Amino acid sequence: MTTDLLHQASDRLTSEFSPTWLELDQRTGLPSRIGSAQTGEVDLAATFSLVLGGTEHRGMHGELDYDGCSISSDLHRTGRIRDQLCLDGRLYTVPIQAAGWYGTLCYQIGSASPEITWSWRLVPGPNAEVLRDVRIGL
């Protein structure tokens, strides 16, 4: 079964498998609050940035270094949140776009620890710069 959540001031993701819920920022789709009836609520400040373009070379210790890159934090939601029942919980997908890259933020709420997992998928648009790194903060 799949449903759509309509735009609200924030979107609350819940599951019949867990007392824990997650609220998402309406504009970005990033987590803005987490809580449950047992533990209360906690505000979150999530960030999502793409490191784009530039050139790469080997650093002094063999690591990759990048020169001339730009950082884009202009993430925004491009559509409705979709949810579907899966084997071990409820999966929510949020369509996003940032700096010519398109994809989804995925949140799964289940009964086992960790009760909430977060992942993302990105694909380049036709004129997207090379993606060097994804930086996520919570």
Explain what this protein looks like in three dimensions.
The chain has 138 residues and is mainly β. It has no helices and 15 strands. The strands form four sheets. Strands 1, 10, 11, 12, 13 and 14 form a six-stranded antiparallel beta sheet that branches. Strands 2-3-4-5 form a four-stranded antiparallel beta sheet, with no helix packed on it. It is elongated, with a radius of gyration of 17 Å.
Provide a brief overview of the structure.
The protein is mostly beta strands and 138 residues long. The protein has no helices and 15 strands.
List the helices and strands and how they pair.
Layout: E1 2-5, E2 10-15, E3 18-25, E4 31-36, E5 40-43, E6 47-52, E7 55-58, E8 64-67, E9 70-72, E10 76-77, E11 81-86, E12 89-98, E13 101-109, E14 116-124, E15 131-137
Antiparallel strand pairs: 1-11, 2-3, 3-4, 4-5, 6-9, 6-15, 7-8, 10-12, 11-12, 12-13, 13-14
**Which stretches of 5+ consecutive residues score pLDDT under 50?**
5-9
> How would you sum up the global shape?
elongated
Return Rg in Å.
17 Å
Largest sheet: 6 strands, antiparallel
Structural class: mainly beta
DSSP, total strands: 15
The total of helices stands at 0
Features:
about 140 residues, about 65% strand
